[in-house]
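Following up on my earlier thread - several people asked me to post the actual chain instead of describing it. Fair enough. Here it is, all 202 residues.
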Amino acid sequence: IRHTGYTVSYNQTWRLPNWVAYELTREETKGTATRTNKFIVDPSVKGVSATNQDYSRSGFDRGHMAPAGDMKWSSTVMKESFYFSNMCPQVPALNRGRWKDLEEQVREWAVEDSALVIVCGPLVDKKDSAIGHNRVAVPHAFFKVVLAPYVSSPRAIGFIFRNEKDTSPLRSYAVSVDSVESLSGMDFFPALPDDLERKVEA
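Reply from S.P.:
Thanks for posting it. Predicted structure:
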């Protein structure tokens, strides 16, 4: 599903995104659109979607994958960032802790590097639990990969977070993009020339 600010691969079984991908430019970090805080069903989702009722009293936050803080450059993209297709059940201490810290770090990198490509999403398997009437899967972990393609020596980094409270330093979650690909079964940057892709993903 292609929205103005991000693209989402939606998993109808989990009621979650498989992944959310977007570019964040230096200019976009200076946006001034205000948070809507209005969580709504994505009109482009076919089939069942999570709703506010599923999250109510579940103990989990509606955790943004593409963060609202990266979507301040337009009121339209801010609204779209609150679609449930961009949400996953996150332990509050993660959503408001290290996950948020990484979101802020990525914005700093976007200012430094002019533009980034970001892909993030949940890691889910069959034994994970679910919440609500619509049986929204609760991921056991989350990934984020960040590519700086326009710097003189392009670089990329990956992160893996367990869906739990943890206050280790942010760098302790950092891994190679290759290792995120192994865990997720995804190929993140296939459009890069092969030699460059191998280098930055290692």
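Strands lie at 7-11, 16-25, 61-64, 87-90, 115-123, 130-131, 136-137, 141-148, 155-162, 174-175. That should answer part of your original question.
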